Amino acid sequence: MKKLENEKELVRKAIAIGTSYAEKRGAAKFEASDSSNEKMEFIYRLLVKDKLIQPMPELQVSQQTIRHRLALWAQSLEKKTDT
């Protein structure tokens, strides 16, 4: 898994977009005290459930792989808005 150049920024963007998506969809209400790891896992699982991203084999699911997958998702959203 090759680390993206601006992965930290993309992860922050993915969390912001993902929390907004989950709240608008009525799937979750995030609190300020929720950790970013909890948010990332919830967003990942919601996006997989809604078939917006490909699921990983359950043995590969970890905070690092979720972080990378959400960064890729945010990057793909950026590319869609650039065109």
Automatic annotation (TrEMBL):
<dbReference type="InterPro" id="IPR038316">
    <property type="entry name" value="DUF5062_sf"/>
</dbReference>
<dbReference type="Pfam" id="PF16691">
    <property type="entry name" value="DUF5062"/>
</dbReference>
<protein>
    <submittedName>
        <fullName>DUF5062 family protein</fullName>
    </submittedName>
</protein>
<dbReference type="InterPro" id="IPR032036">
    <property type="entry name" value="DUF5062"/>
</dbReference>
